[in-house]
Write a structure and sequence with these properties.
Elements: E1 7-10, H1 12-16, H2 26-38, E2 43-48, H3 61-67, E3 75-79, H4 83-92, E4 96-102, H5 105-112, H6 116-132, E5 137-142, E6 146-147, E7 151-152, H7 155-167, E8 172-177, H8 184-197, E9 202-207, H9 214-223, E10 228-231, H10 251-260, H11 269-283, H12 291-294
Parallel strand pairs: 1-2, 1-10, 2-3, 3-4, 4-5, 5-8, 8-9, 9-10
Antiparallel strand pairs: 6-7
């Protein structure tokens, strides 16, 4: 039976910002993270420890972590792709680290400069060092439903990466529709396979709304055993290899759907919607999210 509570991982400060034309200042990033924490987010993907020359939107990760209000009791996640990134994350004081492992080689080469096999080896090295430091590690299997370069992704590839990730100590496996091509039937087929092989790791899902299927996919994931869902305040974000992408599913819109379906998240709907509107003003664009315009129901 599905749980009556779903945990939301707020990914706006990292995935939501990484492809925006206007980088936010350290102070603006800190305010964004503090705002979503005040709205009830208790796990937040706050920073990315990648080369700032490659991803300038993610510069200042250490300064952002140093500026956060820790009184909210939130757990702050840092994205790392190698041991150097892990060392930076540990020094900066994150609470968790996440490693992205694409399911397709061409995406992995273009996005991370290596093959899937090489990225898995890097993850296993990160996981061993993180375990020694008592740092929880999660793995996001990106391009799990389709790749902009290789087309359809075979479910067996996703399952095998999830198996390897769990075997090396991942406490959570996130299945990501990086370019927004998945549909609910695929979600319902893939998640039980991953859950069966993930060796007790929590099951998490990350959807983009590029083709307007993200929210249906999220609800299907919940109904098929996902206990954690990613979303981005305002609906910002997207993959640089997905032309025309509209962004991640929006936290406020996702929370509305879940609440109306009898599923609690602990997130304040109005506060998160206001934060999405605020972020849009900082980025100089209209948020893809709809709740900030339409409001909740009943009013």
């Amino acid at each position: 039976m599905a749980a009556e509570h779903v945990e939301i991982v707020e990914v706006g400060p990292r995935d939501g910002l990484q492809n925006e034309d206007r980088p936010l200042s350290v102070e603006e990033k800190v305010e964004l993270i503090d705002r979503v924490a005040a709205a009830g987010a208790r796990r937040i993907e706050a920073v990315s420890f990648v080369n700032p020359r490659r991803v300038p939107q993610m510069a200042g990760a250490e300064e952002v972590m140093a500026g956060l209000d820790r009184t909210f009791g939130a757990s702050y996640i840092g994205l790392v792709l190698n041991r150097k990134g892990l060392d930076r994350a540990l020094e900066a004081g994150v609470d968790e680290v996440n490693v992205a492992v694409p399911a397709t080689d061409e995406f992995c080469r273009r996005n991370q400069g290596c093959s899937v096999a090489e990225m898995l080896a890097a993850y296993e090295d990160i996981a061993a060092a993180a375990a020694a430091a008592a740092m929880p590690v999660s793995v996001t299997v990106s391009t799990a439903f389709g790749c902009p370069f290789e087309g359809e992704t075979a479910p067996e590839r996703v399952v095998e990466i999830a198996r390897r990730a769990a075997a090396a100590g991942a406490v959570e496996i996130a299945i990501a529709d990086t370019i927004g091509v998945g549909v609910p039937r695929q979600v319902a087929d893939l998640l039980p396979r991953v859950r069966e092989t993930a060796d007790g790791a929590r099951l998490r899902c990350h959807f983009h709304n590029t083709r307007n299927t993200g929210y249906a996919n999220a609800l299907t994931a919940y109904e098929n055993g996902a206990t954690v869902l990613d979303s981005s305040v305002g609906g910002f974000g997207g993959c640089p290899f997905a032309p025309g992408a509209t962004g991640n599913i929006a936290t406020e819109d996702l929370v509305y759907m879940l609440q109306r379906s009898g599923v609690e998240t602990g997130i304040g709907l109005d506060a998160m919607a206001r934060t999405g509107t605020w972020l849009g003003s900082r980025l100089g664009k209209e948020p893809p999210a709809l709740l900030g315009r339409a409001g909740g129901f009943p009013g």
